[in-house]
Amino acid sequence: MSSRNRLMFAVAAVGMLISAAAGAQEYPTKPITLIVPWPAGGSTDLTMRAIAESASKILGQPIAVDNKAGGGGTVGPATMAAAAKPDGYTIAQLPITVFRLPLMQEVSWDPAKDFSYIIHLTGYTFGVTTSAESQFKTWKDVIDFAKANPGKVTYATPGTGTSLHIGMEQIAKQAGGIKWTQVPFKGGAETNAEMAIEQLDEHKRDLVVICNAPVVEGAVIAATEASGGSSLASVRDAAEDLYG
Questions:
Q1: Is 20 exposed, middle or buried (0-12, 13-18, 19+ CB in 10 A)?
Q2: What is the C-alpha to C-alpha distance for residues 193 and 132, in angstroms, rounded to an integer?
Q3: 7-123 has which fold?
Q4: In the chain, what are the domain boundaries?
Q5: Cα–Cα distances in Å, from 155 out to 44, 185, 188, 197?
Q6: Does domain 125-243 have CATH number 3.40.190.10?
Q7: Is 218 left (phi over 0), alpha (psi -120 to 50) or beta?
Q8: Around Cβ 130, how many Cβ atoms within 10 Å?
Q9: 163-191: per-residue pLDDT in tens?
Q10: Pairing of strands 207-213, 154-157
Q11: What is the spatial distance between Cα 201 and Cα 132, in angstroms, rounded to a whole number?
C-alpha cells in the first residue's frame, strides 16, 4: 500500500454464489439486506445508505441496511458467509481487511470461495485529525513529538489489520522506527465520538484519529494526498512532512 495514493479498497459482494433463481428476470421479488460492517453514522455507512436508497428506487424493492461492526470490518462479511442463503438477498460491503486478515490469523471465511463480487463502489482519501485544542497543528508536529516521546502518541483506527492501522505502522517504519500506539475502534462513528471527548479533556490530547476524510470532528492536519476534493485543498499531504 502506498501512503501517497488514494486507497480504493471498498467493494460490494454477495455471499457465495447467487442462485439461478435470484439471477432470473424477476429478481428481486422481496426486500434486500445490505450488511454494512461499520457503526451507523460513519462515512462508509452514510455512503452505503445513499447507494442503497438510490438502488432501491431502480430495483423496486427496499434495501435494508444492517450494521454489523467489528473486527476491522470483517464481522459483517463473516456473518454473511456463515449464515446467509446464497440467493442474492443478502449483500455486504467488503473492506480490504477481509482479504488481509486471513494472511495475519486464522479466520472463518475464505475470500476466494465464500463471496461473489459485484462491483467496486468506493474509494477513500484518508486523513489525520486531532482535537482542535491539541498541541499538534501539523503532521510534522506529530512526527517530531513521536520521535521524542516513544509510545506516547496514540492513534485511533477502525480496527487491527485495516489500511489505517497498516498505513500508520508503515509510516512509523519509514520515519525512522518511531513508536506509537494503536487504539482500535469499530469504525469512524466511534472515533469521531472519541474526538469529541478529546476536545473536552485536556489530559487526553495526544490522540490522533486516522479517518476517511473529510468526515471528521476536529482539525484535519494531513491527508494521504490532495485529491479529496475542494474541502481538502488546503490540507497538507502527509508525505510532504514525512519525506520533505
A1: exposed
A2: 14
A3: D-Maltodextrin-Binding Protein; domain 2 (3.40.190)
A4: 7-123, 125-243
A5: 20, 10, 13, 14
A6: yes
A7: left
A8: 27
A9: 889 988 998 998 888 898 888 888 877 87
A10: parallel
A11: 12
Amino acid at 67: N
HEC string of 103-140? HCCCCCCCCCCCEEEEEEEEEEEEEEEECCCCCCCCHH
Give the HSE-up count for residue 22: Cα atoms under 13 Å, Cβ half-sphere.
16
Helices 188-200 and 43-59 pack at an angle, to 10 degrees, of: 140
Task: Using DSSP, state whether 6 is helix, strand or coil.
Answer: coil
Cell numbers representing residue 152 in the block? 506516547
- Residue 195 cell numbers, joined: 474526538
* Within this chain, domains 7-123 and 125-243 share the same CATH topology: yes
H helix runs in the chain, sequence order: 43-59, 75-83, 97-100, 139-148, 163-174, 188-200, 238-243
Would you tell me how many other CB atoms lie within 10 Å of the CB of residue 119?
Answer: 8
DSSP string for residues in 171-192:
HHHHTTS---EEEE-SSHHHHH
pTM: 0.73
Distances (CA, A) of 82 to 8, 39, 76: 26, 21, 10
Q: At 173, list the grid cell.
A: 517504519
pLDDT in tens, 8-59: 333 333 333 334 444 456 899 999 999 999 999 888 899 999 999 999 999 9
Report the alpha-carbon distance of residue 67 to residue 48 in Å, rounded. Answer: 11
